[in-house]
Amino acid sequence: MSDLDQLTQSLARNLKHWRGQRSLTLDGLATRSGVSRGMIIQIEQARTNPSVGTTVKLADALGISITTLLDYEQGPQVRLVPPQAAVRMWSTSTGSSTTLLIGAENPGPLELWSWRLMPGDHSESDAHPEGTVELLHVTAGELTLVVDGESHEVSAGTSASFDAQVPHGYRNEGATVVEMTMVVSVPPVR
Predict the structure, then answer these.
(1) Dihedral angle at the C-alpha atoms of 50, 55, 58, 61, nearest 10 degrees?
(2) Which residues, listed in sequence order, are joined to residue 80 by a DSSP beta bridge?
């Protein structure tokens, strides 16, 4: 089974599991997430592999991290994720990528990401639930962080934090690769 097939099967199994845990109907999850009922059915039947944006919307609507949506069986208190088990969530033909390194659920979803943006590439994100905070640290290049339409230059060695309940994006407008580490903290579902 390929990595994509495993990801599709895991999403199908876990989306059904967490939708049941939250006592959400297909229509309820569709309304809460903004993802169509038909798309949710296709995901739960492992007939499609959704975009990163769709996966984020579903995880946010369920109040869980993407890590949990991909694999809800957590095991012991100490959890090691070797490099080959990290999940590549987004990539471009030019070499840009994001990798979800690890996540946790207490007190709310918490995710650690590794980002690589090639010159000229960008990634846009819809607003996350109220109370979501993102922290990032640029280790190479210069990132253009756009939060609610306002651009901020974040050079190598600089860290940033922002409330992610507004549209935001990450751009590499320079000539060298941007590398950064990011933490996303989502408040628990009330």
Answers:
(1) -160
(2) none
